[in-house]
Amino acid sequence: MTPERFANGMTFDDYVKVTGSPENMRADLLRSPGTLGKYFSSLLLFLGLVAFAYFAVLVFSSLLHSYRFPIPYAVPIFDIPFALTAIGVGYLCLERHRLRQDVRSASMGVMLWLAALLAIAHILTQPDYPETPGVNPGVAPYFFLLSYLMGFLSVGLATYYGDRHLRLTDRQRFLVAVGLVLLSIGIVIAVLEIRPFLPSLVMKGGKFSLFGCVAGGLANGLVGVWALWGARKKFQEREQDWFAGFFLLAAFIWIVGLIGFLLLPFRYSVTWYVAGLARPLGVGAIFVGLLREQVWLYRESRARQRDLQSLHAAGQALVMTLDPQRIVETSVTKAVGVAGAQAAILFRLDGQTRVLRALGRAGRISQELVSDLELPIGQGASGLAVAGGRPVWTSNLGGDARFPLPPEVSDRMRREHLRAVLSIPLLIESREVFGALSVVYTEERGFSATEVELLEAYGTQVAVALENARAFDQLALKARNEAALRDFSQRLLEASGEETILDEATRITREVLQADYSALFLYDPNEGGLDLRAGVGWEPGTAGRGAASLSDGSLASTAFVQRESVEVEDLSTECRFSIPAYLAAHRVRAGLLVPLGVHDQPVGVVGAYYRAPHRFTEEERRFLLSLGQQTALALAKVRLYTELQANLRRLQETQAQLIQADKLTALGTMLSGMAHELNGPLTSILLSIQLLQQQTVLPHPMLERLNHAERECRRAAQLIKDLLLFARRRAPERRLVDLNAVVKAALSLQAPQFSLQNIRLVTNLDPNLPKIWADSHQLQQVFLNLFTNATHAVKSARGQGTLAVRSFQKGSEVCVTVEDDGPGIPREHLGRIFDPFFTTKTVGEGSGLGLSLSLGIVEGHEGRITAENVAGGGARFTVDLPIGEGEEPAETPVPTVHKASRSAQILVVEDEVSVRGILNDVLAFLGHQVESAETGREAMAKLERKVYDLVTLDFRLPDMSASEVWRWLLTRHPDQLARVVFMTGDLVSADTQEFLRQTGRPVITKPPTMERICQVLDEVLEAKLSDS
């Protein structure tokens, strides 16, 4: 990635190379003339000169050789102050460690305590009483030199390793103190043990021996130089460590004192006293350093407190308003007070041009300076602060080559007499750069780290205030836009036409986005382009000029094809899009367009146009996108509404049919139960009649009456079957049928009623009517219902009338109309006459099921039945049936009733007493031995005891179903499964048919005939003989 270059051609890395690292630049600018460093340098120079003169006297002159002053208790006089001072300063250092947790405090405290303990050992081993002056070659000199050594070690450790972190608890500090005491005792014991093996440190006359001078001087000299060098290096670092200066002073004093004594190593000499005095003086220097640090910390805390108060007051002023302009004015005004500057300027970064523009100023600078003031990124302190994202400052604004300025800006600064500047970047949310805040001074000056950090903290408050103001403006704008969208949504709910939606969408787009023009395009599938259907602000005649091609490269077509929003800030500099003539005529410079999409399928485009360049915000994009989605949904709603209106009538008709189907479902459930109950009596009656016909020689009239009764029973059985077919909506049993013959048969059955009611019959049946594929029994029932209803209508009107029946072919259908001249059907009843149980007859005259059954039968034949009133009075029913084609079933031989050639053992399982009795009689008449069972459990008990040749098993038993008995046989007596014959009155049930299909056993339907019983018995018994 190529680094960004500033206006002067330098990158930020180049700038760092010239000025050094940002940290070094901070250190350079923090150092200011006239600080404590000069005083320390002068003091050290003075002490050096004194030390040089002192050493010169000792080396080149014998002036001090003769001066020896035996002072009683000399050792306690010098060592006790040192020991007490070292212990006190060591304690202060350990207390300092409690706060700082550093190596410097711990090492100083530990080593000073150890030096103090060795000084106490020195006192105890050299009492120095007046009556014993002179040579004492004891162990005292060891502790004297070791005490010095510990002092040098304390300075060396504090300077070389003082910045390191060392965490100690109070308990650990206590253990350190105990360890020091033990260590000092150990050193004393070691010295006492080793001393006899070493040469004496003191010779006669009180002078240190050569061994003592060399050993003590070498050990302390090396450690002393090491400590002195570390203190000097630490003191002279860029960020000066003032505490290290006091270490340097202490080490220097100790070295001078020790060297002087080693040059003139006489006991009770001036140099000996100077060496003794140097130790407490060095510790005192360290103590002064501690005191000065506390004073500095106190001043710093007071200054920080004042800074915090100033910062708090400035922050309070910033949060008093959410107006951006007032925040800018407050920011620069308070910045002058916080930084103690003469003026302040707030810059705003232009993200497009990468230029800083002045927003506000305060203090001793004129408006002329900031008027149209622009700073490119990388120029001036503000430009460098924004580029590097860190504070930048200089004490010489005009003469510092590191801060290049445009010539005109440099001239303005010179005229305003501005010298020093401190600039900080303003970073808002997500580290985005808002701009820079610069404070300027009319005099050259340096900047401390505290001043920089204070302005950085204030800059953070300014950035937060500006961000809050911006967020508030965005929320307020979003709230206004949301209110506009809610109002628009409400209007869309009320709109019923497409034009209203288009007008509302373009109106609110222009008002909310404050656009010069708004437009809404809809896709025309016929033309294959976008048509400007509505707009606001355009010249008359602009909208509705025809569809524009999707390949013309315009803003609208691009948004539609790419299915995403398209925006242009300035069309004059944009080469990606073509400019249609109507946009050029209206001098459009900027535009924002979004597709109108429903489920990612756009139906058009809505947009806003401006005559001047315009930079679009995220809120403007969000608003137009939301409006586009609502508009698209509203358009889809209107178009769907039109389709719904077209389908409404069909849905209403379908609803009526669904209601009819629900009623028929309930009816079917009831009819199924009724059929089961009716099949029992019909079985008894039909089989009794047939048994009488077979057993008795009757007179011819009586035989005819029995035959008639048999036919009616068969008709009733067929009616029950039709009811079940109607209830289950099963396909009828079809064959080729002559519809005229069916109509004539129904008319002949109804003829007595016509004569009785004085109804004249008029028929017009087409002799060339083609046969249809239908169930004649069911169709006969339909026509009987229609004829019965017509007869009742004519009778209720005037006691006599005419019934006209006509058949004809209409296309692929044959039609039969039944028309009477009765009172007709009331208009309010026309929609309900096919409902189950609906009737206008009095109680006892009708059930309300006739027309409902007829409707089911006709629809089962894929036909239609309709009713209407005839002009002049009367009603007309029309039955339309498809002609259709089918294959005629093969003729099956008609079974006959005959005696069995071989008697069989038969078990009849039937719960109804009458049915069970007649079945027993019929089977006995046929020559078989019969046993019966009323329940399933009774049947299973008999099957356990005896094997039967044939078992007739009724489907419905009081305690269990036939399927349960079958499963029991399958488990216990699978060899008897082939002898089972089922009996049922409901063969149209899907469950029943599925079970019978799985078993594969023959079925006798109720009510059965003797012929069917003989046929099934022959089939089962013959199959049994063939298997055996």
Task: Provide the β-strand percentage band.
Answer: 5-15%
- The CATH architecture name of the largest domain reads Up-down Bundle
Strand order of the largest sheet: 3-2-1-6-5-4
**What is the number of helical segments per DSSP (H or I, 4+ residues)?**
28
Give an overview of the whole structure.
It is a single chain. By secondary structure, the protein is an alpha+beta fold. It folds into five domains: 62-298, Rhopdopsin 7-helix transmembrane proteins; 319-475, Beta-Lactamase, CATH 3.30.450; 495-616, GAF domain (Beta-Lactamase), CATH 3.30.450; 735-882, Histidine kinase-like ATPase, C-terminal domain (Heat Shock Protein 90, 2-Layer Sandwich), CATH 3.30.565.10; 905-1027, Rossmann fold. The chain is 55% helix and 14% strand. It contains 28 helices and 24 strands. The strands form five sheets. A six-stranded antiparallel β-sheet has the order 3-2-1-6-5-4, with helices on both faces. Strand 20, helix 24 and strand 21 (929-933) form a beta-alpha-beta unit. Mean pLDDT is 78; it is low at 1-35 and 129-136.
